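explain this:
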Amino acid sequence: MAVFKWKDRDTTYHDGLGDFHHIGLVCSMNPVEIIHASSAAGKVTTDTSIKNWTHWGVLTEVPVDQQDGPAQENNQRTVTAESGETVFMRYKPSRKMKYVARVPVGAIVDVLSESGEWSLIEYNGKTGYMMTKFLK
């Protein structure tokens, strides 16, 4: 099981929804043991209380078939725009969202996933969303 800490104020995305800002993995329920990386302690540590862990979810196994052959290479695309200008890579899939970076036309990006008119991409070590119509 994964547990999360949540703040009711925006710290990263500024979308008015608050922020999940920390994740832990439940290793034991009796007694409670939650393992997580602590920036305050500067190391991986264990909590023995559920205090401040406000949300949870069950993790499921993702089966891997070793007979499928080698892993696929990254799905790379070229950034295009009729304007010839840079294209915004945004924090979330919305035109109203702040941008992570301006990606130049002609740049090669890794497409991590696609969903409708938005794609989750990685460029120069940064991850964000770009409208799929700008990726060829």
Q: What stands out?
A: The two ends are 39 Å apart (CA to CA). The CA atoms of residues 89 and 101 lie 5 Å apart. Confidence is low (pLDDT under 50) at residues 66-72. The longest strand covers residues 19-29.
